[in-house]
Amino acid sequence: MQVRTDLAVEATGMQEESIAGIESETEEKDRIRIDRIRIKSPDAAERVGKPCGNYVTITVRDLSENDRDEYEEACMCVAKELGDILNIEENASVLAVGLGNEHITADSIGPKCVKNLLVTRHIKEIMPDEVDESVRSVSALSPGVMAFTGIETSEIVRGVIEKTKPDTVIAIDALASRSMSRLGRTIQIADTGINPGSGVGNNRKELSEKTLGVKVIAIGVPMVVDAVTVALDAMEATGADEDEIHTFFETYKRMEPMNADMVVTPKDVDSLSSQSARIIANGINLALQRALDREDIDRYGHF
Amino acid sequence: MQVRTDLAVEATGMQEESIAGIESETEEKDRIRIDRIRIKSPDAAERVGKPCGNYVTITVRDLSENDRDEYEEACMCVAKELGDILNIEENASVLAVGLGNEHITADSIGPKCVKNLLVTRHIKEIMPDEVDESVRSVSALSPGVMAFTGIETSEIVRGVIEKTKPDTVIAIDALASRSMSRLGRTIQIADTGINPGSGVGNNRKELSEKTLGVKVIAIGVPMVVDAVTVALDAMEATGADEDEIHTFFETYKRMEPMNADMVVTPKDVDSLSSQSARIIANGINLALQRALDREDIDRYGHF
Amino acid sequence: MQVRTDLAVEATGMQEESIAGIESETEEKDRIRIDRIRIKSPDAAERVGKPCGNYVTITVRDLSENDRDEYEEACMCVAKELGDILNIEENASVLAVGLGNEHITADSIGPKCVKNLLVTRHIKEIMPDEVDESVRSVSALSPGVMAFTGIETSEIVRGVIEKTKPDTVIAIDALASRSMSRLGRTIQIADTGINPGSGVGNNRKELSEKTLGVKVIAIGVPMVVDAVTVALDAMEATGADEDEIHTFFETYKRMEPMNADMVVTPKDVDSLSSQSARIIANGINLALQRALDREDIDRYGHF
Amino acid sequence: MQVRTDLAVEATGMQEESIAGIESETEEKDRIRIDRIRIKSPDAAERVGKPCGNYVTITVRDLSENDRDEYEEACMCVAKELGDILNIEENASVLAVGLGNEHITADSIGPKCVKNLLVTRHIKEIMPDEVDESVRSVSALSPGVMAFTGIETSEIVRGVIEKTKPDTVIAIDALASRSMSRLGRTIQIADTGINPGSGVGNNRKELSEKTLGVKVIAIGVPMVVDAVTVALDAMEATGADEDEIHTFFETYKRMEPMNADMVVTPKDVDSLSSQSARIIANGINLALQRALDREDIDRYGHF
Fold first, then answer.
1. Which of chain D's residues have a Cβ under 8 Å away from the Cβ of C262?
2. pLDDT above 60 (res C249)
3. 3-state DSSP: chain B helix, strand, coil percent, rounded to 5?
4. What distance in Å separates the CA atoms of residue C78 and residue C57, rounded to the nearest whole number?
5. What's the confidence (pLDDT) of residue C200?
6. Is D229 strand, coil or helix?
7. Residues 87 to 106 of B: which have CB under 8 A from any C CB?
8. Is residue B296 part of a domain?
């Protein structure tokens, strides 16, 4: 009877009392709110349904508005939080993986994001004298979705990791939220990797240090809520009790098997996903390359 | 307390008793069901919230399945029903208008469809001796959405009509349905034009004989349902009475203003919209050009 | 025996002596060179094959390099030169028209450019109190190409002009150059409109004050050279005389009729066309809206 | 002084006399011509600059024309020739690799092609009981280009091969031709893999049995000619002798270093590349899946 969410801030916030083994802190800035959650004990992890680790949630007012200051602050904030959670050595190399299906707008953040990354690995390999030593080696991959490749995304990523030996993977993906008000407004950075059932397509296998053998940072933005969420909101708003909600769930499942394949998404999902993808890309570029700063925002889009 | 639907078959079917002034008939084929509804009196039109005219609804089992026979039957069926409802003279010219935003998958049927039309007007104008007389003059336009053009779609279409003088307009658009089970499975053909509030974006002005001065046939496929639909389904399924539903609606409206900007859409919306766009395009090509038949399906895509 | 060029700076420069009725001046900046040519007499116009009017050519070193300073200077320079040549009243309205085929990379500058414009007309029309009076009314259109619409681009534009009554049209298009070294490095702004034979597709009708009834500013970037140019360069480089070149032209025409449908284009045409489209869009935004400045560069892309 | 070509039929045909160690045969059909070349000895391979192996060249009249019969014949012909050259066991698995940059129209055949393949590997792995045993396991990958990934394409492919263990790789790529008349009209199938310098981007590493450890079939369509080709054609047409041509080459190289980055491409490169990609995809589908025949052409496009 649990509603799916990929956000730790929602999973932990849904618990009524505070939970042993979970630490959290909140930082309110002018326009941006940052929640840092640490799930420390396996007990707590099991209770909230998220693996142990650090989860940073950055919440802005509205990414779809054309407020350049807020946009740049969001980029800087992603860079700062990602830098802290990455905590990698100066010359460590990174592989960025854009997950999802670029042909479904709500699922396209990952592929869109990697198109705006500053990719340097080939230059460092082929013309090492051409680039400053301080430039970090960054490679990028959009592996596509299993329906089109016939291959588990994790298999493709593992194959490429074995050949290119990055020190860290950053995986970018669209997420599912419990709340409509978070869509396109929240960016989650986690050092736990990507776990099954995430995103719009729910058949992705885990991408984590356990499965890939290297540290995996996951960055995502919620772009959909499960359709059933709307129904639950409705019932709660009208004071349905737990029995009624249970009955609903049972009925709902029988009612229309295809409901499971429905998602709720904002009407302006196209600009939301493009904007989010660019903010994450800028944040990654700034976090990985020391020589870049706020003036370099939006400088490395291929298109 | 009314839930939005662009389908006459839903608007009329929602009424409990049969309505004076509305005629309907149903034809069941092997894999396809056709509902033909005629709204005859202004009274009936007002009751169901749809203008007087003819509405044909073609329902298939599942367009996303790769069943070539069903696909071709759907194309032939659209051609046949469109031909009947068009009822135009042999040498009448047609302008096809693909409405919607090609960057939002669920709203992209119109622009995708016109890319698969056999366009002939320029050949007939420039090299009339090169084409057989029986070839009908067809032009096509994707006017874009107001957020990107700054211009009402209807203004663009009217401007082009005045310059090119087509005898008939066929407008293709994504629709909203009341029922999730209809998404990507139903094609509606109507001789009433496109009316406000249709589609994913609800700010389109009417495109009809009244506003454009020529006959307007509308073809659409439901690709979204309002998020509130899911909530209502839930409440009905659990036996909520009318008072409870009313309370819910009031609460819901206050709850989250942004809910109004949420839509429910199938996860495989990309293949559904591409497939639907191609079926409609094939149907239009076959209906308009006498020389084409089943073997010419899928022959005229630009991409 | 004339080789096609859409650039006045090439057409006039090909003449050996200076031509009566043509004025020109050159401004060299740090990284950017500006040539301003004025064709004043019909005689001169006929000699160089370009209509009377003003042509400004902005030449940068290399748009494909990721030099942010050069990029922003190019944007500012387009804004300044366009502002001078536009010379419009404070509250005059503008329609931007993106010409060309977005599916052919070398021909996609126009459609790509209008996607990055700040479009305001609908806001001023629908919610005039929401926007400051100083905001200029800007609308934008990508009419598509005749092969897909069946309609002359000029007919579509004229129809939309009659409905929306802009004071000025800005038309953006890909151009053909005589010289490979200019591809993607030169931006031409002219107050003479767009003339037949321009661009990658050579079947466009004139878009000018004469045909549209409003002032037409044309902005373009050369993205192709005719294949025959390479041959001529070769012959000249090896010292062929005029007779030999004449013989070649005759032979060439007979040789392969499809040669006429070949163009030479840079291998990195994708990033060149995207970059050029963004520079022009930024220049237009800055020229049209007084409230914007260098900090607002790249702020208004839809995607 | 050699002009680049990826076509064995051109490389061998350029030799004046017949070459020991090369066998060839030609089959003329109604609308299609098939040249089968076998380079048997290392000596011959070195002379023509192509590795030992089999090269089949299918030449049609014009793929851009909308002649459905010719289109389907081309699909069937690719299926037949590919089947012969593949010569794989009934249950052997295949990985199709779409090489090239989907954002450059002339280089997009590979990525476009794999979008139209019938991909089955995941179904066979996850739900083996759902598919008939006769269905061959097919997976597909568009690895992207090194400028965007920072990784050699061959490294990505090798990584995926090691994880997924296909028996054979089919690599699809855009090619360079010596002759403008071949662009978009010729399909080459070779059992030698893809070799350096092929395609629009010339920095790809070899993809062959030697480097990948599995059989590699390469399928390609010429979409560009080197700009220098046009110059050479010109000189030959005007009777230039070898010395003059040599002088030209020397001059040409000094003249404009950027010439090397120029290619000649047909104006209708968008429809040519889409059409070619679909023909190859249909050919692959028909060659790999015994249950499919002519009626299944165009059935498996994702978009």
1. 180, 183, 230, 264-267
2. yes
3. 40, 20, 35
4. 10
5. 44
6. helix
7. 103
8. yes
Chain D contact for B299, CB < 8 A?
yes
- Residue bearing tokens 């090896």: C238
Q: Do C295 and A270 touch (CB under 8 A)?
A: no
Q: Which amino acid is at B282?
A: N
How many separate domains does chain C show?
Answer: 1
Give pLDDT, residue C115. Answer: 94
- Does the pLDDT at position A224 exceed 80? yes
| 3-state secondary structure (DSSP) of residue D206 | coil
- Nearest CB partner across the interface for D302, out of B68, B271, B303: B271
Contacts of C299 in chain A (CB under 8 A): 66, 68
* B54/B216 Cα distance (integer angstroms): 12
- Of C194 and D78, more confident: D78
Q: Do A248 and B255 touch (CB under 8 A)?
A: no
Give the end-to-end CA distance of chain A in Å, rounded to a whole number.
43
Q: Which of D68, D295, D300 sits opposite B299 (nearest CB)?
A: D68
- Neighbouring chains of A at 3+ CB pairs under 8 Å are B, C, D
**Does the CB of D254 have a partner CB in chain C at under 8 Å?**
no
| Interface membership of B214 toward C (CB under 8 Å) | no
Instruction: Note whether A273 and A112 are within 8 A (CB).
Output: yes
Highest mean pLDDT among B197-211, B260-274, C114-128, D229-243: C114-128
Q: How far apart are CA B49 and CA B43, in angstroms?
A: 10
* Contact by Cβ (8 Å): D62, D200: no
The pair of three-digit structure tokens given for residue A79, joined into one six-digit string: 């860079």
* pLDDT at position A237: 66
- What does the pLDDT look like over D139-186, one tens digit per residue? 999 999 998 999 999 999 999 999 999 999 999 999 989 888 888 899
Cβ of A274 within 8 Å of Cβ of C66? The answer is no
Residue B1, Cβ density class (10 Å: 0-12 exposed, 13-18 middle, ≥19 buried): exposed
Question: A221 or A5: whose pLDDT is higher?
Answer: A221
pLDDT per residue as tens digits for the range C180-209: 888 889 999 999 998 754 444 444 578 999
Pick from A114, A159, A156: nearest CA to A139:
A114
Residue B254 lies in a domain: no
Query: Is the CB of residue C300 less than 8 Å away from at least one CB of chain A?
Result: yes
Tokens of C133: 């009076």
Q: Is B114 on the interface with C (CB under 8 A)?
A: yes
- Label residue C260 by pLDDT band (50, 70, 90): low
D274 with B299: Cβ contact below 8 A = no
Are B33 and B7 spatial neighbours (Cβ–Cβ below 8 Å)? Answer: no
Task: Report pLDDT for D243.
Answer: 78
Q: Band the pLDDT of D43: cuts 50, 70, 90.
A: very high
Q: Would C177 be classed as within a structural domain?
A: yes
Look at residues A108, C277, C166, A268 and name the one whose alpha carbon lies nearest to residue B148: A268
Residue of B nearest to C166 (CA): B151
Q: Classify residue B143: in a domain, yes or no.
A: yes
Q: How far does B271 lie from chain D, in Å, by closest CA? A: 6
Supply the range of the domain harboring residue A64. 8-223+270-300
Residue type, B90: E
Distance from CA of A18 to the nearest CA of D (A): 41
Where do we find the tokens 């660019």?
A278
Picking from C52, C49, C3, C62, the residue whose alpha carbon sits closest to that of residue C23 is: C52
* Option in C235, C264, C268 nearest D227 (CB): C264
Most confident of A62-71, C15-24, C214-223, C227-236: C214-223
Q: What is the ipTM of this complex?
A: 0.89
How does DSSP classify residue B40? -
Find the CATH number of the domain harbouring C126. Answer: 3.40.50.1450
Please list every residue in chain C whose beta carbon sits closer than 8 Å to the beta carbon of residue B147. Answer: 119, 122, 302
Q: Which of C115, C122, C149 sits opposite B139 (nearest CB)?
A: C149
